[in-house]
Design a protein that fits this description.
The chain has 12 helices and 22 strands. Helices cover 31% and strands 25% of the residues. By secondary structure, it is of the alpha/beta class. Bound molecules: shikimate-3-phosphate (S3P).
Length: 421
């Protein structure tokens, strides 16, 4: 089977999350188009409303009136906020609330309750917030206000942690600096600068000045490259394929997987159509023969962390052994993605090894298609399995793939259209 044609993925989830949460701090009113219609972003919209914010709309079109830091809740009674399964909501929101008066308790579902949270609370405490985890996990208790700037080294290479510190820094009494040994996705600082704040990058140091933010009248969220990655990678492994993703985010901090596909031998062309507030444009990936293995260096990992599962499928189809170096962070995602990739690709007949912090995949794989494919309630695994099935020319249901609706509601329609293209 080949994939051919054009598609437009749903709005970028990382940018959408930040857009809703920055509205707690910013003044003004904006009309948003392209907002990610995902479970995670719905959680943030609910939280915004629980704090007294006005957000009207549905699907991808919303009008959001900024709270300017004046939440409806400023007393001593704790306000319970439910972050569902979204680590981005919980971590970014922690930074926002750390600078505001009031007492907040942030909790989430069973998955979120297993994820590490001390890493985000620790810098906020250094800034002066009175904040606690529950044995390193959520529920989190945050009593905000009275912050001062800090210098924070983002040793975990996490954009969520950097984002939390940036949000807190906006309400601090003095400037803050975030040092990044390896740079991570830059959407928070881009939004701050686009909305009248000052976050100045002199690599590896980002300096954030406290200050007032104004929402623009309109904001258009570009499409999600992480969602587009499934079809773009599918095109790289299926003969005769040529697929174009339109209107997607092209920040240098996100396009690591395109560089890897290019290195592996696919034809990748990027067309930048807009620079600010987010680099946006289209990407075409064309099959150019069997892929060859490559090594993914630790410095590349943050720029492809969410594309690693689908890249590992490309690795299983490629000739030779592809090694992903130091991808331990994958163990701390919604699920242990290092083990999930090993298990799912292993079930398809691929030779996958997880050793120390590295993951290696030896290809090419002669896929054996088990009778029963189960995404184990993981969106990324569900989409990866659908691409594996398409690449094997086989039709099989994927159990539990309804979770895809939580991030890419039209995945199956887009797959069908590209397969017929
Ligand atoms: C995200 C950052 C990454 C990524 C996650 C979204 C973000 O997580 O895996 O899906 O929106 O900042 P970490 O910050 O934990 O690396």
């Amino acid at each position: 089977m080949a994939l051919r044609g054009e598609f437009t993925p749903p709005g970028d989830k990382s940018i959408s999350q930040r857009l809703v949460l920055i509205s707690i701090l910013a003044h003004g009113e904006m009309s948003v188009s392209g907002l990610s219609d995902s479970d995670d972003v719905r959680v943030s919209l609910e939280i915004f409303r629980a704090l007294g914010g006005e957000a009207h709309g549905c699907g991808s079109k919303w009008t959001i009136k900024g709270l300017g830091g004046q939440t409806a809740h400023q007393g001593d009674e704790p306000l319970d906020l439910n972050c569902g399964g979204s680590s981005a909501a919980m971590r970014l929101l922690s930074g926002v609330l750390a600078g505001l008066p009031g007492l907040y308790v942030l909790d989430g579902d069973d998955h979120l309750r297993r994820r590490p949270m001390e890493r985000v609370i620790d810098p906020l405490r250094q800034m002066g917030a009175r904040a606690e985890t529950t044995s390193g996990r959520c529920p989190l208790t945050i009593r905000g206000g009275g912050l001062h700037g800090i210098e924070y080294v983002n040793d975990e290479n996490s954009a969520q942690l950097k984002g939390a510190v940036i949000f807190a820094a906006l309400s601090a009494g003095s400037p803050s600096r975030v040092i990044e040994p390896i740079s991570t996705r830059d959407h928070t600082e881009r939004l701050v600068n686009a909305f009248g704040g000052r976050a100045t990058l002199n690599p590896p140091c980002l300096e954030i000045m406290p200050g007032r933010l104004e929402l623009p009248e309109t904001f258009s969220v570009p499409g999600d490259l992480s969602a587009a990655a499934f079809f773009l990678t599918g095109a790289a492994i299926m003969p005769d394929s040529r697929v174009t993703a339109r209107n997607i985010v092209l920040s240098g901090s996100r396009i690591g997987f395109l560089k890897v596909l290019d290195r592996m031998g696919a034809l990748v062309s990027i067309s930048l159509e807009q620079e600010k507030p987010e680099p946006t444009g289209s990407v075409t990936v064309e099959y150019a023969g069997p892929l060859k293995a490559t090594e993914i260096a630790p410095e590349e990992v943050p720029s492809l962390i969410d594309e690693m599962p689908i890249l590992s499928l490309a690795a299983a189809w490629a000739k030779g052994t592809t090694v992903f170096r130091r991808v331990r962070e994958l163990r701390f995602k919604d699920v242990d993605r290092m083990m999930a990739v090993k298990h799912q690709l292993g079930a398809l007949g691929a030779r996958v090894r997880a050793e120390n912090d590295d993951l290696s995949v030896e290809g090419p794989t002669k896929p054996i298609l088990p009778e029963f494919l189960d995404a184990a309630r993981d969106q990324q695994m569900a989409m990866m399995l659908h691409i594996a099935l398409a690449a094997s020319g086989a039709g099989r249901p994927v159990q539990g793939d309804e979770v895809m609706a939580g991030s890419y509601p039209n995945f199956k329609q887009d797959l069908a259209a590209l397969s017929a293209g």
